[in-house]
Write a structure and sequence with these properties.
This protein is an alpha/beta fold and about 260 residues long. It is built from nine helices and twelve strands. α1 crosses α2.
């Protein structure tokens, strides 16, 4: 049996199940949400260490778990490995400290055959942008299958065509992984991130090119493009920065979480 092994457990998030559960329990004690009338089909989630962006990510997973799904497709940018196109994980299982998640290998192979930009590059699958989502998936959707797609140099319109197909099946939950601006002052980070947040909220693709910075920009543009084509709505849940944790306002990273649905 082949396994997509953890690469950042113990750094970005705890390597012990009880510690992850403690984080999630703490996050869930820290928010209350008015009734959000949205049938979630996709989320946007950050991928920094849980001490920085875990609360923000957890919020989207918690609220999306009110819906029933069969599989979760996690799509995130490659930070370490150069890729032309994207790599889809062709393993049997996905390892997490909470227990392994079954990979929908058959569905993954079908997608790989259908979309020429998809291949399988093993070294791409030690990526933290996708792996940080897995403990939340195991926690909230135990029993579901997972698909991992890590992209590099890829046009967002091509990725949007794949997302359009994924949206046809209401058993799919799509997770788009991204952080926002990196290493600006707090004031400048908020200005840049507000452009992103407004572009997401208003589903304005052109606005993304007016100052928004996000490491997962390709994925964000793709899901917003698909949301427009499929008459979906967006709901920005939360925004924060690393300053909230570090109190360092000179080199700030921004994070947000978003629900997308109908």
């Amino acid at each position: 049996m082949s396994i997509r092994k953890t690469a950042v457990a113990g750094t970005f998030y705890p390597n012990e199940a009880k510690e992850i559960k403690r984080y999630i329990e703490h996050f869930n004690k820290s928010f209350s949400v008015d009734n959000i009338d949205i049938n979630t089909r996709a989320i946007i989630s950050p991928h920094a260490g849980y001490v920085y962006s875990g609360f923000t990510a957890n919020l989207a997973f918690n609220l999306s778990s009110k819906n029933q799904f069969k599989r979760v497709i996690v799509i995130g940018p490659s930070h370490k490995v150069y890729l032309e196109g994207a790599s889809i994980a062709l393993y049997d299982e996905y390892q997490t400290p909470l227990g392994n998640i079954k990979i929908d290998l058959e569905y993954s192979k079908i997608l790989k055959e259908k979309y020429s930009f998809l291949n399988f590059k093993e070294e791409a699958h030690s990526e933290h942008s996708t792996e940080t989502q897995a403990p939340f998936i195991k926690s909230y959707y135990d029993g579901l299958e997972i698909i991992e797609i890590v992209y590099g140099k890829l046009d967002s319109s091509l990725l949007s065509k794949l997302i359009d197909e994924l949206l046809k099946d209401k058993n799919n939950l799509i997770v788009i992984s991204t952080d926002l601006s990196h290493f600006y002052t707090l004031e400048e980070a908020k200005k840049l991130d507000n452009i992103c947040l407004n572009a997401i909220a208003s589903q304005d693709l052109e606005m993304f090119d007016k100052g928004c910075e996000a490491c997962g920009m390709t994925g964000v543009k793709a899901i917003i493009n698909s949301s427009l084509k499929n008459n979906l709505i967006t709901k920005v849940l939360y925004y924060c920065t690393s300053y909230d944790r570090t109190k360092d306002d000179t080199r700030v990273v921004g994070y947000t979480s978003v629900l997308i649905g109908d």
